[in-house]
Amino acid sequence: MRVKDVKKVVLAYSGGLDTSVILRWLQATYRCEVVTFTADLGQGEELEPARRKAELLGVKDIFIDDLRETFVRDFVFPMFRANTVYEGQYLLGTSIARPLIAQRQIEIAEMVGADAVAHGATGKGNDQVRFEIAYYALKPDIKVIAPWREWDLTSRTRLLEFAEAHQIPIARDKRGEAPFSVDANLLHSSSEGKMLEDPADEAPEAVYQRTVRPEDAPDQATVISIDFERGDPVAIDGAPLSPAALLARLNELGRANGIGRLDLVENRFVGMKSRGVYETPGGSILLVAHRGIESITLDREAAHLKDNLMPRYAELIYNGFWFSPERRMLQAAIDESQRSVSGRVRLKLYKGNVTVIGRESPNSLYSMEVVTFEDDQGAYDQTDAQGFIKLQSLRLRLGAMAGRRGGAL
What we know:
five-stranded parallel sheet; five-stranded antiparallel sheet; elongated
């Protein structure tokens, strides 16, 4: 990309060291106007300092958008309808936030007439892929600037030197080597790098910021109920809540009971393995609750088909293909399956564990009359099982007979 081709760029901006250096570097390298965009996804940080720092660096157009409700309603909940986990464990807290950030960035670029967007993801990680695939899906002709793939600021020391040379304010606690990096939103927090890079070493307790140690959680269980409508949670203990408020409340309950910790070595899309420490307190509760209500409302074959589709769906989100046609196709199938997934689940939260202790639904497929071990009053004719078993075993019997004729064991 030629520097002179860029006149205005929208930067995904957190106000931290990396993106503040990127902001000044864009101004100096591309000689362009920089518009900053900061998304409030419930990361729990004060965002006004980002505005003040952007103003100090000469930015005129500053966007700080509260996207918490949009994030949970339009991205987190649709993902949880599929019971989505990546590689059997990861609840995709970082992955699911990227398409929303990219979507809003493109919207702002169109609003202000920008010809480029920029992000602060490194050339080793997944986020560069997620951001850029989303950008191109939404605006195919957009120019993308990825400073970490262009500049020579290859260490934190170099970043600090650049910041000081260009009079970029740096918080005292950001000087020197950070022990690990953190990404957070309303769904989760993710910690990676530095002291966490060796997967043989246990993560220090200081890494965990959203949950108490399970050992320190209350000795008495917390019992709650979650109401669902068409696959989405709508109330806790009978009290209706908005999507963001509901997830925030589940986070509080999960935090107090030590729920949602995960130490994971995962396979990045770019090819390497990485170790991350994740905390997803509310999401961990929600996953168990959703599977609980599905257990009585979903037909067997529909449930099994969903479970077969889920790993592919999770991989699409992890790899950055939220806006792909195949993800939309899978979402349509998943959403269709949720038409009857309404009702109430009761759960017990205790020292890092979430247990379903009750579930009920007006759409329940569970029949006590049929399943009972007592007299079912003719609701089920047990002799029907004989023909069922013979038909199911027919191919095996034919195969065994053919094997005997051929001399096989």
